[in-house]
Prior knowledge:
alpha+beta; CATH 3.10.440.10; 7 helices; 48% helix; 14% strand
Amino acid sequence: MAKKKEPKIKLERSYNVPLRKSFRHSAKHKKTPKAVRAVREFLKKHMKAEKIRLGMHLNEHLWKHGIKNPPHHVKVHALKEDDVVKAELEGFEFKEAVKAEKKKKEAPTMKDKLAAKLGIKEAPKEEKKEEVKKEETTEAKKASKPVAEPQKPKEEKKEEEKKPEEKKPEVKKEPEKKEEKKIEEKKPETKKEGKSSSVAKATKK
Length: 205
C-alpha cells in the first residue's frame, strides 16, 4: 500500500507586537533596524520557528517614517507552514519583500561626452584587451633579449679621441689693480705742475 502523505501543519496567529522597548535606548539612526529585529525575535519566540519571512506591506509600514521614527506597535498576521513563518501586516495578503538592486552608474568622463557629441563609436572592450595583451607580450620579449648598443661609426670615434688632445690656448688677463695704481700716481704730478706754474706767474709779476 502507498504511504499516506502527512498533512502540512498550519498555524495562524494574529499579534500586536510591542516595539518601543527594543529601540528606546538605541541611537537615532538604528531605531527602525532594531524594530525589524524585534518583530523577528517576537515571532521566533511565539511561533516556535527559525525561518521568518516578513511581508512587503509590513516592511513598508515599519519604514514609513524613516530610520529614526518606527511605530511603537504593529499588528501582524502570521502563518506557519513547515517551520516557515510568513508574517504580514494585518488586513493584507502575504507578498514577500524584494530587495531593490542598486544600479551603479559611472559618471561620464570628458572623453565620453566628446565622443557622444562628435558621434564617434568606441571599439568594444574585448578588442582593447587583446591589443593590450599583444603590447605586453612584445614588451616582455624585448625585456628578455639583451639590448646591444648601437655601433658608432669609426670617424666619430677618431674625432672623440682627438678632442682631449687639443687644448685651447690660455689667454692671460693682466691684473686691473696695477692700472688703477698708475692712474693714482699720475694725479699728484698734475697738481705739482699746477703749483709750479702759479709760482712762475708770481715771479714774472
